[in-house]
Backbone:
């Protein structure tokens, strides 16, 4: 007696293809049972905590400052998701460093431009991997991002995280 006959049956009784399909279905069922019954579930109950971070926007025109309003929600331009509420707005004269003919470097004011620093409060998850607003938007000091509210849009960098 041969192992597989001319008709593709195992020991002349069971079709090899049918046996493979049954084996795959059984493996998938055991995999699903293992995943949903025995594996650790992802912890979605991590407590969100208040986080305050500051955003610095360099060299914008003076009239843009009027559009940065305390109490407005701020959004990430890329995803459109809310990433906090503006709680404080400060401004300072914009400056630049230039090389002088004698080889020194001087700090000079940039005419008609200011730097805006706004403080944002948000709910975030903080763990060993970092700080995440809305569980997905990672806050990194020094990262350049596009921010927007309903009144303005700007490129800024995250200055500090508390």
Residues:
């Amino acid at each position: 007696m041969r192992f597989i006959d001319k008709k593709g049956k195992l020991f002349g009784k069971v079709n090899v293809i049918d046996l493979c399909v049954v084996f795959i279905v059984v493996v998938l069922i055991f995999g699903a049972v293992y995943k949903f019954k025995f594996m650790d579930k992802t912890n979605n109950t991590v407590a969100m905590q208040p986080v305050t971070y500051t955003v610095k926007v360099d060299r914008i025109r003076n009239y843009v400052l009027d559009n940065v309003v305390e109490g407005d929600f701020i959004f990430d331009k890329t995803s459109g998701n809310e990433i906090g509420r503006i709680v404080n707005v400060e401004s300072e004269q914009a400056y630049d460093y230039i090389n002088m003919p004698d080889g020194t470097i001087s700090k000079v004011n940039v005419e008609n431009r200011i730097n805006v620093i706004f403080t944002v409060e948000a709910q975030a998850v903080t763990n060993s991997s970092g700080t995440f607003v809305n569980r997905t938007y990672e806050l990194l000091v020094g990262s350049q991002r596009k921010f927007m509210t309903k009144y303005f849009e700007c490129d800024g960098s995250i200055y500090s995280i508390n």
In short: Strands lie at 9-10, 14-15, 49-60, 73-76, 82-99, 105-127, 130-133, 137-139, 144-148, 153-161.
